Amino acid sequence: MSLCFRPRAALAILALSAGLAASAAHAEIVVTDDAGRQLRLAAPAKRIVSLAPHVTELLFAAGAGDKVVGAVNYSDYPEAATRLPQVGGYNNVDLEAVAALKPDLVVAWKTGNRGGNLDRLSALGIPVYVNEPRSLEDVASSLETLGRLAGTQLSAFHAAAAFRERQAMLQKRYGQRPPVRTFYQIWNQPLMTVNGEHLISKVIALCGGENVFAGLPQLAPTVGTEAVLAANPEAIVASGMGEARPEWLDQWKNWDRLTASQRGNLFFIPPELIQRHTPRILDGASRLCAQLEEARARR
User: Fold this and answer.
1) Are 49 and 59 spatial neighbours (Cβ–Cβ below 8 Å)?
2) Fewer C-beta within 10 Å: the chain N or C terminus?
3) Where is the Fe/B12 periplasmic-binding domain (predicted)?
4) Architecture of domain 23-161 in CATH?
5) Which tens digits make up the pLDDT trace of 119-151?
6) Is the CB of residue 281 less than 8 Å from the CB of residue 273?
7) Residue 266 pairs with which residues in a beta bridge?
8) Which CATH number is 175-297's, of 3.20.20.70, 3.30.70.260, 3.40.50.1980, 3.40.50.410?
9) Which string of DSSP letters, residue by residue, matches the chain?
10) Do 23-161 and 175-297 show the same overall fold?
């Protein structure tokens, strides 16, 4: 863009900011959540409880961190989230603790929270928004929707735009690279992976990889060792439970007929960078893309 158009662009951004602020201040907020339910708020939420670690992170990324008054265990990013009152775990929410915080919005996780608990919160008159990103675009749109609900549209807009821009850069660089057949391992006992509908599988595709178990019907299926050997992935990527590479990843070296083992393509990515549906998933994607490039170089 030439310099002569920049003032016009700046004015457009200012107009957008003013429009977003006016909308947040006066308009009723009507959204449809990821469970297909319509939610109406008369005004932006001021007291939000998060029922999943990824939701907590999304709320902070959308500029609504100062409106979050409670969260579930393991809501550990950003650092400010660790100081929030806790309301149990995502699969065993303490409903009394949630109600005691007097939220005007609860943001839940579709596949993580128990439906009965969400129904009970709704019965108490607490608005519940259900979140479930299944694609990278869903992460960006989640930021925008949460920004609308919290009245922080401008911050959320910028966060979503930055996410989309970074995703596009990764797609341009790696999306057309020669495919690498990839097995993503969540855990070893039971041996778990992801199917093609899972967000992690979309990250694999972003990097030019092919999920060898994309065709399975379950979102996070259990598979057997023989199935992995039969699929013969060129790369195995594991997450585990924390920052340390899991010891069980190297057990694949015992199968010397496995291409991933033969070529030393046994990779690790910390789970918080690839298993949370947040902007940081592109940090995990960057690592994964670099790892699949290593696998290509070893052919």
Assistant:
1) no
2) N
3) 47-296
4) 3-Layer(aba) Sandwich (3.40)
5) 999 999 999 999 999 999 999 999 999 999 999
6) yes
7) 236
8) 3.40.50.1980
9) --GGGHHHHHHHHHHHHHHHHHHHHHSPEEEE-TTS-EEEESS--SSEEESSHHHHHHHHHTT-GGGEEEE-TT--SSGGGGGSPB-EETTEE-HHHHHHT--SEEEEETTTS-HHHHHHHHHTT--EEEE---SHHHHHHHHHHHHHHHT-HHHHHHHHHHHHHHHHHHHHHHTTSPPEEEEEESBTTTTB---TTSHHHHHHHHTTEEETTTT-SSSS-B--HHHHHHH--SEEEE--SSSSPPGGGGGGGG-TTSHHHHTT-EEE--GGGTSSSSTTHHHHHHHHHHHHHHHHHT-
10) yes
Long-range Cβ contact pairs of 72-79 (< 8 A, separation 24 or more): 75/50, 76/272, 77/53, 77/272, 77/278, 77/280
How far apart CA 251 and CA 265 sit, in angstroms, is 13
Report the alpha-carbon distance of residue 156 to residue 33 in Å, rounded: 17
- Strands 88-89 vs 92-93: parallel, antiparallel or unpaired: antiparallel
Flag whether the pTM goes above 0.85: yes
Q: How far is CA 262 from the centre of its chain?
A: 32
Any residues with CB less than 8 A from the CB of 297 and at least 6 apart, and which?
none
The amino acid that residue 42 corresponds to is A
Identify the CA nearest to 193 among candidates 109, 135, 275, 286. 275
Task: Sketch the domain layout of the chain as residue ranges.
Answer: 23-161, 175-297
Locate tokens 């960006």: which residue? Answer: 140
Given this model, what pLDDT does residue 27 score? 79
**pLDDT digit string, tens, across residues 171-181:** 999 999 999 99
Euclidean distance between CA atoms 198 and 263, whole angstroms: 27
Q: What is the pLDDT of residues 159-195, one digit of tens each?
A: 999 999 999 999 999 999 999 999 999 999 999 999 9
